[in-house]
Structure prediction request, 124 residues.
Amino acid sequence: MIQNVLQNLAYLYYPKNICPWNQNEAYLQTLEYKRLQSTIDFFDSDENKKLRSNIKVEFEDDLILKDFEDFSRLDYQDRCFKFFLNVFEDGELYSISLYLSVLCPYYVIVSMKHSPDPFFHNQE
Prediction:
């Protein structure tokens, strides 16, 4: 059931049987692409940029969350907001990424523990 709902939601923004690379002119003229572009433009508006800036201001006094960064690039047609945070805990570096879709009610949180030695580090 949920797969059908998400698939139907995707087809609101992505036309069937038109390749955006091989049939670029036709793709750019589709109702689905225009809907996609309109949605991205709405979330990339000055008003929404202020909202994201205000979120950052809300966390300025929090010792851990104050350094999160907004890496959203809706001007490059990203379909989600991207927030990133590095956290040091017990001498370990962790990164937390939040991807928040602008097309459907969906988000992903990715946390990663980073190795103290980078893979390109050579010990002698």
Notes: The mean pLDDT is 88. The CA atoms of residues 117 and 123 lie 10 Å apart. The longest strand covers residues 80-89. DSSP finds four helices and four strands in the chain.
